[in-house]
Specification:
about 90 residues, mainly alpha, two-stranded parallel ribbon, 2 strands
Length: about 90
């Protein structure tokens, strides 16, 4: 019996820790008024997993803030390296 309650307790702690991590990311975006690429990447990792009610609520708040223009997603252009041909045709 004790082992089962301990399991539930650790599962709850894990869920709370995960939610507080997402909450921190949403707070960072709200405070700065922008969604940095690294923060967006972490948030997308949350989106791809199984979400609790609290996590869905936090993501809805973030999505509303982006839609309202309170948070601007920052796009970083990706530099693609071009391989140069080391031989000549002809």
């Amino acid at each position: 019996m004790f082992g089962m309650s301990n399991f539930k307790s650790s599962a709850i702690k894990s869920s709370v820790s995960r939610s507080s991590g997402l909450e921190s990311l949403v707070r960072i975006a709200m405070t700065n008024g922008e969604l940095a690429p690294g923060v967006a990447l972490q948030i997308n990792r949350y989106r791809s997993g199984k979400l609790s009610c609290e996590e869905r609520r936090l993501l809805a708040i973030l999505d509303d803030a982006i839609a309202d223009g309170c948070i601007t997603p920052i796009e970083v252009p990706v530099m693609q390296s071009r391989r140069q041909v080391a031989y000549s045709l002809g």
